[in-house]
What we know:
Oligomer: single chain
Strand content: 15-25%
CATH superfamily of the largest domain: tm_1862 like domain
Number of strands: 15
CATH class of the largest domain: Alpha Beta
Strand order of the largest sheet: 2-1-3-4-5-6-7
Largest sheet: 7 strands, mixed
Shape: globular
Amino acid sequence: MSLKVLFTHSYFLHFDPKQLRAAMPYPPLGTLYAMAYLRERGYEVKLFDTMFCRSAQEIQPVLDAYKPDIFISYDDGFNYLTKMCLTNMREACFEMQQYAKSKGCFVITSGSDSADHFEKYLRHGADAVAIGEGEQTVLELCKAVKNKSTIQSIAGIAFWHDGQIIKNGPRQVMRNLDELPEPAWDLVDIKPYRDMWLRHHGYFSLNFVTTRGCPYKCNWCAKPIYGNRYHSHGAEKIVKQIKKWQQVFGFTHVWFADDIFGLKPNWLADFANHVREENLRIKYKIQSRADLLSHEPSIIHLKESGCTMVWLGAESGSQKILDAMDKGIKVEEIFTATQLLKKHDIGVSFFLQFGYPGEILEDIRLTINMVKELLPDDLGISVSYPLPGTGFYEKVKQDLKVKANWQHSDDLDLMFKNTYSASFYKSLQRYVHAVFRGSKARQALRSGQHFSAKVKPVFSLARQALKEKILFRKLNLYSS
């Protein structure tokens, strides 16, 4: 008789006000991969999806009814929200682990935060923490439980042994991703996801991934799951998978959750060809780098295959700051990529990061001027966030305050001593958004275009200008 394994994850949409307002939930893709991997090998698996739950206590009746032998909290390593290691989610995971432990389950945890803070998870109910890519590690742990054998020699775990916490050596990441079964989409209740998307946005988007890892070395970017390795699924397999599940779920849009989509130009061309051969009708958004999109052929392949939005990790309009981050791109490449994407009618949005050590007002002005000149479609603004295991974290760890994690994704508290105060950076975020909206409104007015959804709140350019001036005065006050 096979062991019963209950999977969950620790992202609760209702604990994250910003994302709840955005109403763009995606199922825990990494969790679904791990479930499919175990199921293919004969384990009975079930998902308790916390996405729409309001309390960790909601898992109790599921534990009572299902009576699993093994409980696995497996976070989605493809979603940036889980990589942020939010305190609310961590505490909920601790609570669920302890419930499961009280029911006699063997408790396993896998995710970015548990990899960085495995001691805390082990002290709150976990028997083992999978560190790094988790499918093979979790399988070996389940085999050990089934065979009642020791886990001491399993690579890529931290665990209790004789009252002490032991951390074993790392496990090598998988190279041939096409050996993985497709995610266990059939085990997730897709209805609440689809309903929220349709109610708030009029269409339904689902998440897929074509690669694992990132070969670049930005010194603020933590990589506790895949490290600096980068491996791809075959383009044909991804296209067929999307087509299959589109027929089942009816989504019309895809978010490719890759850290970097289409790093290899030949893969992009192959993907566009298979989309055309399968007559796949889909729109999609991706994350990428400016240097990769400074070449027009790559952008043509994106356009042909249905790409409608690219989120660029622009970070800063100051070359000094980009170099300090080890970003490996030039400001000129941000301009070139943006202009080429717009030329081919592909939307472009910027991730911006303020508060990196050494940033001064002149660097901030360069970033704001870049936004005003390029006018992307949207902005994602954050302050520098020190994650364990990064070079950036090592630089500032002596200055970290008692608070070392954000409560939710819109927290924006500055957690280390910097050039300006936390109040300055919170006001800066509001100011940059105000300048951005005002610039978009003025552009639309000059061109005679209808106001977009991002511009609609700006009813009066005069009132908008006044708002910008007030926020600018606040910035000067906080920076003095």
